[in-house]
Each structure stands twice: as structure tokens, then as C-alpha cells.
């Protein structure tokens, strides 16, 4: 259950930012665009342990950001929030990629048309772009959720595997496998993880199809 | 009143235009690639020109010298695009109402019912744009622009993506916009027939410059202005429907001269404008007799223009207005067609095609 909570928070928190970054990368031209693009993709390419270690350095209680946040009572290291942060960062590139593709598929000419009809940029995004990228948005979210559920390397490096606190599904399975006689428990968790993955996939298919139907007609 | 002054570098040439669009329909007329679309996009705010200033009824839409730029959504210009650009995720009804959400409360607005009735799209309201034909899409696009309470309609070759039959279907709706709604319009076109039917004012663009500006009859009757090529030349006559004859003909009266053409659906007394293609006109020095053509206009030769080819463009002043005739140089010489010579223009009734007849205005 902890794993579900971690992944859900991770995806929900990352989603708005992912949409913004995906839109910016797809539509705007700005200096340093390539750098932003690389930074977004970095967690995908780096070994997860490296990401986890970087997180520990930055967001740990002695890190520059983590230390500052601690002053106002927010602690990431060795808490479930840290697990969510790690999962969000690992899921982020996948979400951005999926959403960016769907933004690129929306004809900017439609956004121009909306502008001539009086829609400001924000309203134009809300009334034209967003409904049209909805299928891609859902796909990206599910992909991100799946990645967050499966996150292991960065999580265990950053927040370790404390039962009841930071022990997510994959790290629990790993821990069970480390002790003799733990196979049965590991198998149980494996089945749970398969069930969650399958239902998430089916659910997203359903949503995407309905969104496509609403957007479709052509 | 719209005033436009623009300079913009385009691949291959520079655009440099100044013109004024008085109330009514102003057609930007010229071949493809003369910068017409650039001008209309700059007026709409979809393209930032290198330099320029555009005002509408005294309000400055942009002025590059003062770094003033009103974004497109604040200009309230109803734009009708070449390819419709309807929103695929909305129904026709939602598309039509899209602009109304954003229009200021105080703006004078058309009612949905009136626009739907005007454009004949009542049966389409619940459909999605993907299921509409090209002509239907364009009618919805016109309605959508109209319902956003625009101060002006901008139309960028709205008929060019349609086949001939669809063009004939849509053109009357633009006439109704002009005559019934009375909204000012800037209309981009490369078709002389569209100019003839819609334009109150014509601005002829060539190679990025304004070549000529004037009323439709003036510009189309000027043999020096042939942006659409010599084949498309033709003068415009203003006429009044006199009566309908039982044998399927309509009689018009233009400057005291009767003109016969295939029956049109206009009530007697209404004003129409008729374009007479230059290559459909035969010239004769004597009043022809025993001829099947019904329309014979007496006139005086104004001038004869010849180029390097075998053709000559004869401009003729008749009581009905100026008529252009495309004849061969050889006939022009044989007939002695010189400025001041009297002659008769012969126009076959059936050569006046329905798309050349528009309502007057």
C-alpha cells in the first residue's frame, strides 16, 4: 500500500510540471533548450544508483536543499516522501516524452485559430491543446506511474528500505529474497505487483480510448 | 476603415505595401506568392512583420516604430482560413460558440440562430468536423468567425481548397455577409471571378507591391491590370434585373442597354454585377445581323494593347460600362481598331457563367 501511495503522489506531483516542460520543449524556442532537454532525460540514462546518490547529496538533511527544507519541517531523506521524490524524478522523463509527442501532434494552426477567436494563450491551451493531448497525457501518466511503482535503485540509495516507512514493493521483494525462507512472501508480492500493473494498464487503455473517441471523429 | 502599412522580407523579394480598406469588402488580389497571405496574417497578428503599422477605425493594432503589438486574441478579427481549421474535438455547435466565450460583453454580437440560418448549417450542429464535407466545413468556419463578435472579417483564400461546385456554393454566403450583416471584410484571392462578385475595393498586389487600388469595375476594366493572367481578364458591368422571360432567359438592363443571360435567381429590380470574360467577346465594326448572339453592345474603342504575342486587348467604352475584348492582333489591324473607332461588342448569352454573376453592392 505504501508503494501505491508513493507512486500516486509521485505521478500527481510530477504531472503538471511534466505537461509544462513537454509543451515548452514541443512549442517554444528558447536558449538552452537542448540543455533542458538533456537534464530532463538524465535520470533515464544515468544508473539509478547515481541518481539516488545525487538526491541524497542535494536533498539529504546535510544537503544544500534538504538542509534548508528541514528548517521549515520538510524532510525527504529516509521518509516515504523521499521515496516519492525519487520515483517522481525517475518517472519524469517518460512522462515528458509521451506528452511532448502528443503536443507535437496538435497542429499549431488550430491554436492560431483559437487566438483569432479571442482565446488568450492560457485559455487556448485549456480549451484546444489540453483536450487534444488528453490520450497522450493519460498514456504518459500511466507510464510514469508504472515506472514509479517499479523504481528501485534510486529509492533504495536515497531512502533505504525501512519497513513501513520507505519500503516500496520492489525493495520489499528484494529484502525477502535476501533472507532464507522468504521466497513465499516474495512470490506473494510479485503477484500483487503483476495485478497492479495489469489493472493500471487496462484502466489507461480504457481512458485513452474514451478520450480518443471524444477527440476523434476524423 | 483599416489602414495598412507593411514592410517585410520574404524569401526572394521584399513586401512593401500601403493601402486603406474602406467599409465594405476589400479584396487583396494577386497571383500566388505575392505576399497577400503575409499581409492578412500581419493584420490578424499571426505574423510579426519587420516593420509596419496597422490601424482599425483609428485604433492602432500594431506599430513597430513604437514597439506596440496587440496580440491576436485582443484584435477581435474573425479569421476564415483556407482549410477551415475547425476544432476536431468539438461539435459544430461548440465550434460555432467557441469565440463567444471570449468576446467582450459589450460587443455587438450575432445570434447563433441567425448565423445558422444565414449559412444553412442547422442540420450539422451536433456533428463533428471530421464528418463534414469541404464546403460544409468552410460554412461552419465562416459562422465561427462571425459569432466571435469580430470587428472585421479576414478571409484568406477561403475558397481555394474547394472544387468549382463547392466554390459556387460558398461564394453567395460571403455576399450575404457583405449585404445582410454589413461587416467589413478583407478578402485575399487570386480569382478574378471572386473579385468581380465580392469586391467593393480591389487592391492589386504584384511582387510585394501595391500595383493598383480602386473599385472593382475600375480595376477589372483596366487592361493594364492582369494579375491573374490574360486568360482571366474580363470587365465588370453593373446591371439591374429587368425581367425574366418564359424561355429561360433573364433580361438585365445596364446603362440603357439590354443584356440577356441564362435565368438567374434574382428578383426583378435587384442590382447585379456581371463579369464579361475578355475572351468571350467578339468585335464587329458594323452592327451585326443574322447572328445568334443576343447581346450586342455599341461602343467606342478606348485603347488597344498589344504585347509580344499574337493577341491584343481592346478596351471599349459602352453605355453599359467598360468592356474588355481579347482579339488577335491581326483582326485588330484588319478592323482598324484604334482609339475613337466605333464598334460593337458581341457577347454570347450562354458564355456568361453563373459564377460570373453576383449581387450588386
TrEMBL record, chain A:
The keyword Electron transport appears for this protein: no
Location, primary (coarse class): membrane
InterPro entries: MetI-like (IPR000515), MetI-like_sf (IPR035906), ModB_ABC (IPR011867)
Annotated ranges, domain ABC transmembrane type-1: 1-202
Transmembrane segments: 6-26, 38-60, 72-92, 122-146, 185-204
Gene3D superfamilies in the cross-refs: MetI-like
Protein location: Cell inner membrane; Cell membrane
GO CC annotations on file: plasma membrane
GO molecular function, a single term: molybdate ion transmembrane transporter activity
Membrane topology, as annotated: Multi-pass membrane protein
Keywords: Cell inner membrane, Cell membrane, Membrane, Molybdenum, Transmembrane, Transmembrane helix, Transport
Family annotation (Pfam families): BPD_transp_1 (PF00528)
Family under the similarity heading: Belongs to the binding-protein-dependent transport system permease family. CysTW subfamily.
Task of the protein: Part of the binding-protein-dependent transport system for molybdenum; probably responsible for the translocation of the substrate across the membrane.
UniProt-recorded name of the protein: Molybdenum transport system permease
Source organism of the structure: Leisingera aquaemixtae
UniProtKB/TrEMBL annotation, chain B:
Gene name of the record: cysA_1
Lineage: Bacteria, Pseudomonadati, Pseudomonadota, Alphaproteobacteria, Rhodobacterales
One GO cellular component, as annotated: membrane
GO molecular function per UniProt: ABC-type transporter activity; ATP binding; ATP hydrolysis activity; molybdate ion transmembrane transporter activity
Superkingdom classification of source: Bacteria
Signal sequence residues: none
PANTHER family tied to this protein: ABC TRANSPORTER I FAMILY MEMBER 10
Mop domain sequence ranges: 290-356
Organism per entry: Leisingera aquaemixtae
Keyword Glycoprotein recorded: no
Descriptive protein name: Sulfate/thiosulfate import ATP-binding protein CysA
Pfam families: ABC_tran, TOBE
Keywords, ordered alphabetically: ATP-binding, Cell inner membrane, Cell membrane, Hydrolase, Membrane, Molybdenum, Nucleotide-binding, Translocase, Transport
Sequence ranges assigned to domain ABC transporter in this UniProt record: 1-232
The keyword Nucleotidyltransferase belongs to this UniProt entry's keyword annotation: no
PROSITE patterns attached to this UniProt entry: ABC_TRANSPORTER_1, ABC_TRANSPORTER_2, MOP
